[in-house]
Amino acid sequence: MKKIILVASLALFSFIEMKAQQFKVITSVESIVPSGIGRSRIIDSQEEKDFQKFTSEQTEEDNSRNKSKRSEIRVKNFEETKLLNFYNIGGIRFQNIAANDAVISSKLSTMAADGWELAFVTSGVEADAGDKDGQGIFITRYVFRKDE
Prior knowledge:
By secondary structure, this protein is an alpha+beta fold. It contains three helices and seven strands; from the N terminus they run H-E-E-H-E-E-E-H-E-E.
């Protein structure tokens, strides 16, 4: 009986395939600067980076730092898709928001058609929020995954 269970278990596990996954992050940055003077874009890196090259471990015994240069971290090959700003001189432009939604939807649909699955979405706003706050961005990160 034990042999049957062992053989059945091995047969079952041989059919279960552990697939490696690949992840990709797409970022949309939408300006919330009044008067429409900001810049809004979808950013899609066309390069891969190995985080381990830029990572160091800090311990009490060893205080050595990773000596990688900031220029090594920078990505020079990326796709930049224009979006409209949330504001213009007249104030908030709902038409611009609808246009951005259409462009972002197109990008997400293209990613899905290319085999990417939308796994997570996270967003946030950066603004001074003081009395004379004239700067800010609304940023959204779309995290995709694909089986290799």
